[in-house]
Design brief:
Chain A: GO terms for molecular function: ATP binding; ATP hydrolysis activity. The complex is a heterodimer. By secondary structure, chain A is α/β, with parallel strands linked by helices. Chain A has helices at 44-51, 73-79, 95-105, 110-123, 139-151, 169-186, 197-203, 221-229, 247-256, 279-288, 303-324, and strands at 6-15, 18-28, 33-37, 59-64, 67-68, 80-83, 157-161, 189-194, 206-211, 214-219, 234-240, 260-266, 269-274, 293-299. Chain A folds into two domains: 6-219, 3-Layer(aba) Sandwich (Rossmann fold), CATH 3.40.50.300; 234-299, Protein-tyrosine phosphatase receptor IA-2 ectodomain (Alpha-Beta Plaits, 2-Layer Sandwich), CATH 3.30.70.2470. Chain B has one domain. Classes of the chains: A alpha/beta, B mainly alpha. Chains A and B meet through helix 2, strand 6 and helix 3 of A and helix 2 and helix 7 of B.
Chain lengths: 325, 332
């Protein structure tokens, strides 16, 4: 990658004897939307705090915009906006005042501050509610206000920690859309952390998967799922109305289809795994056999499967190493 | 002429962006004056002030004609110290309302921000951590200072209108020093409560702890010290005069661990110019002394240890807060 904006070299953080982040190295390019994906307690927030100089790494270093975040935290925070998960606002102040306070702390001149705060509020779609007290804001509105809080500073990098937590589905879609749009408009680098694979899929250019403080894989969605699930990356489940009369025969026929790698039959449902998407062919075969198909379900892999798959792989590797020794 | 005016206009219109410290102080002051707890404390102090002023004004004539009192000329100091025993004087009131004021302004300085989730957002801005702590402390002291200063200025104005007696410079110095001393005293309790607000996660815990410390020093400390001294001390009848004095001084030193004792000692000396010592004096020391008021500088010399003690105690508390806060990892 040419001149990455964020470079992490061997970043490690211990809390007592627990390793929260384990020898993490990562590069993120300018204008990229990067997703940190992992279960709770995987070390995502700790990594983010180290990037901002709010936590000291035990080993390694974090370079953000070419600045060492541990040594010069103030300079880094001038360029990086951070929205914590559960960001709070001063409830007794209006949303606009909250925003102007942050603007002033960032040294925006007094003359510009009102106009800039207003235009930022319009940008995130809170133009009509900017004089309401922040305490009266809903969770989704607070999240938008948090975004405004980042944008008023015109950062080079935005880091959002669990930004979709606690917002309703349509709110999440709008919010992610807004982030993507802004990132594209202003060529902002965005780092998002989440434990929802599907939401990350919607907007991220690249995703890194964290488990127990380690970055297990990184890449865009396709390469990631290909590397994870290898040949059987598609799974289809078909339900028929009556229990299958000749299960063995059907299984033979299905296995002859090009691309099918495994078949499992259980009374009235058939589960197939295949390396290309051949759902139409499978359904056609069922219909030709005179079976009454009531449901076709194409299984998508969630984060659960990814974690499982990773743990399985790790266990296998370890046991393999044991055998070698 | 036009040139200099233009220069002046230019100077006025050029509003430099405030430093982050200035911005924080501005916001904190705004928060405090709008908060209910400050309004309640303000009303409490205003009422006691009005009450003590009423009592001292109604007794002022009698006090000013008491020629046996070397301080009878200092009308304005008398305004602050006269009482007919129906109500304590103003500085006694401050000695126990001051701590409450300090605690009210500081007990949730850091932990409320942390619990609201504003602390981590604030620290993610390009600001130094110590400016936050300093701003919290400075803003509260600014308010307290303004409050006390306007109260005594009001008192001086009222005194001037009612009595028509011009004020002497030494009285003004003494009263202004009294204001500084009172702010310092409140500052001690403020920095103690800020320290507790860093140490404890919940605002209620830090408030209760601060009030506990205050109650201990105002009520129980004297009782405990007296009890221990009475148990340990030999019978005064069997002691020589110097030994009694030495024990007395020891007792006083222990009592002076309490900040309220330091404050009342210092305030009394400043407001009553004829007070020459805060401990017992021997006959030899008193021999040849004329009962006259001390000059301002001498009174200041007497209270200097007290002032130093208060400043030192506040610094220790603030340094504790600083030490705990600076390298702590803030997460939600």
């Amino acid at each position: 990658m040419e001149n990455p904006i964020i470079e992490l070299h061997g970043l490690t953080k211990y809390y007592g004897t627990v390793k929260a982040v384990d020898n993490l190295s990562l590069k993120i390019g300018k204008g990229e939307i990067f997703g940190l994906l992992g279960p709770n307690g995987a070390g995502k927030t700790t990594t983010i705090l180290m990037m901002l100089g709010l936590a000291e790494p035990s080993e390694g270093q974090a370079m953000v915009c070419g600045i060492n975040a541990t040594r010069h935290p103030i300079d880094v925070r001038r360029k990086v906006g951070y929205l914590p998960d559960s960001a709070g606002f001063y409830d007794n102040m209006s949303a606009l005042d909250n925003l102007m306070y942050i603007g002033r702390l960032n040294g925006i001149p007094e003359k510009e501050i009102v106009s800039r705060a207003r235009s930022t509020m319009e940008m995130v779609g809170l133009g009509g509610e900017m004089h309401k007290k922040a305490g009266a804001y809903s969770r989704g509105m607070k999240q938008r206000l948090g975004l405004a809080d980042l944008l008023i500073r015109k950062p080079a990098v935005m880091i959002l920690d669990e930004p979709t937590l606690g917002i309703d589905p349509s709110g999440i879609r709008d919010f992610l859309h807004l982030i993507r749009q802004l990132s594209r408009q202003e060529e902002l680098t965005v780092i998002l952390s989440s434990h929802h694979l599907h939401q990350m899929q919607q907007i991220c250019d690249r995703v890194g998967i964290f488990v127990e403080g380690r970055l297990l894989a990184e890449g865009n969605m396709e390469t990631l799922s290909r590397s994870l699930f290898g040949k059987d990356s598609f799974a289809v489940e078909i339900t028929v109305r009556e229990p299958l009369p000749a299960a063995e025969q059907l299984e033979q026929q299905l296995l002859q289809l090009n691309g099918v790698t495994g078949v499992g039959i259980d009374a009235a449902t058939v589960a197939l795994s295949c390396h290309t998407d051949i759902t139409p062919d499978i359904v056609r075969l069922f219909v030709q056999n005179g079976l009454n198909v009531t449901g076709v379900h194409k299984k998508e892999y969630g984060l659960d499967e990814i974690y499982h798959r990773f743990f399985e792989n790790n266990v296998k590797k370890e046991s393999f190493q044991w055998q070698v020794h | 002429m036009a040139g200099s005016l233009a220069y002046f206009n230019n100077f006025l219109s050029k509003q430099p962006a405030l430093s982050s410290f200035g911005v924080m102080v501005r916001k904190e002051v705004g928060d405090h004056i709008r908060s209910w707890r400050f309004i309640v404390m303000l009303l409490l102090i205003l009422f006691t002030f009005a009450g003590t002023m009423y009592v001292s004004l109604s007794n002022l004539g009698q006090v000013a004609r008491n020629f046996n009192d070397p301080d009878h000329d200092f009308i304005y100091l008398k305004l602050l110290t006269t009482s007919d025993n129906s109500l304590p004087t103003f500085h006694i009131f401050i000695s126990f309302l001051g701590p409450l004021l300090g605690i009210a302004l500081g007990f949730d300085a850091i932990n409320a921000e942390k619990n609201n989730g504003t602390l981590v957002r604030l620290l993610a801005q390009p600001v130094y951590r110590d400016s936050l702590l300093l701003a919290k402390c400075y803003a509260a002291l600014l308010i307290v200072g303004t409050l006390f200063l306007s109260l005594v200025l009001l008192m001086i104005g009222a005194g001037l209108i009612l009595t028509g007696v011009p004020m002497e410079a030494t009285e003004l110095y003494r009263i202004l020093t009294f204001v500084v001393l009172s702010v310092l005293y409140v500052g001690f309790w403020l920095s103690l409560s800020i320290c507790l607000s860093v140490a404890f996660r919940h605002a209620a815990t830090s408030a209760i702890t601060a009030i506990g410390i205050w109650l201990f020093f105002t009520v129980f400390y004297q009782i405990i010290v007296n009890m221990i001294v009475r148990a340990i001390l030999p019978d005064p009848a069997s002691l020589q005069a110097e030994q009694v004095i030495a024990y007395n001084n020891l007792l006083l030193s222990f009592l002076r661990v309490a900040p309220s004792q330091l404050y009342t000692d210092a305030a009394t000396t400043l407001l009553m110019p004829s007070v020459r010592s805060l401990g017992p004096l021997t006959m030899e020391q008193m021999a040849g002394a004329i009962p006259t008021p001390l000059p301002f500088k001498e009174s200041l010399m007497i209270v200097w240890p007290q002032v130093t003690g208060l400043v030192a105690a506040s610094t220790v508390c603030f340094a504790g807060a600083y030490y705990m806060f600076m390298r702590r990892e803030i997460r939600t």
